[in-house]
């Protein structure tokens, strides 16, 4: 354990978050997402795990991870098939965490386009989220010189 860090952030996750650079994508996925096979195509090359609900994982990650403020697609969610405007409770909860961290409204990404974006990501964290469509992409921003 380390002081000041959310205990959900294990050593493997902290390593990946620290290694990522500005513009790299992080995928936070539910238990149904093909995380292992998709993660094999990412920069990191293997899946990370935090076995908690998606919103808890996003809160922990955003406690140390800045969201990009230079692009329109810095926060995204997998959209419900054939219902791009539907916002499920898991999506609303994660949006609340993104908003609390100063992030933008999440854009929706069609399911297969989300898979494509995920394969281009730096890393995939598979969560313990069991609700459908608990899959999110967060693009890393910068930490200013003052560290805030």
Characterise the protein shown here.
This protein is of the alpha/beta class and 148 residues long. It has a single domain, classed as RbsD-like fold (3-Layer(aba) Sandwich). Helix content is 30%, strand content 16%. It has five helices and six strands, in the order H-E-H-E-H-E-H-E-H-E-E. The protein has helices spanning 11-19, 35-39, 54-62, 89-100, 111-119; strands spanning 25-29, 48-50, 75-78, 107-109, 123-127, 136-139. It is globular and about 45 Å long. The mean pLDDT is 96. Pfam families: RbsD_FucU.
For the biggest sheet, the summary is: 6 strands, mixed
Label the structural class: alpha/beta
Which regions are unreliable across 5 or more consecutive residues at pLDDT < 50?
none
Strand ordering within the main sheet: 2-5-1-6-3-4
Question: What is the annotated CATH architecture?
Answer: 3-Layer(aba) Sandwich
In what range is the share of β-strand residues?
A: 15-25%
Q: Which CATH class applies here?
A: Alpha Beta
Radius of gyration: 14 Å
Basic shape: globular
Instruction: Return the string of H and E elements.
Output: HEHEHEHEHEE
Number of strands: 6
Provide the number of structural domains.
1
What percent of the residues sit in helical stretches (DSSP H or I)?
Answer: 25-40%
Count of DSSP H/I helices: 5
In CATH, the homologous superfamily goes by the name RbsD-like domain
Overall pLDDT level: 96
Distance between the termini: 22 Å
CATH topology: RbsD-like fold
């Amino acid at each position: 354990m380390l002081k000041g860090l959310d205990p959900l952030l294990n050593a493997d996750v902290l390593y990946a978050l620290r290694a990522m650079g500005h513009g790299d994508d992080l995928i936070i996925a539910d238990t149904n997402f093909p995380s292992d096979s998709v993660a094999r195509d990412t920069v990191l090359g293997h899946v990370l795990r935090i076995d908690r609900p998606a919103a808890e994982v996003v809160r922990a990650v955003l406690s140390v991870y800045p969201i990009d403020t230079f692009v329109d697609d810095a926060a995204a969610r997998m959209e419900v098939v054939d219902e791009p405007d539907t916002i499920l409770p898991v999506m609303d909860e994660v949006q609340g965490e993104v908003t609390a961290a100063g992030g933008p409204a999440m854009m929706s990404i069609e399911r297969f386009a989300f898979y494509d974006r995920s394969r281009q990501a730096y890393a995939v964290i598979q969560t313990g989220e069991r609700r459908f469509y608990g899959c999110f992409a967060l693009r890393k921003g910068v930490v200013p010189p003052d560290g805030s």
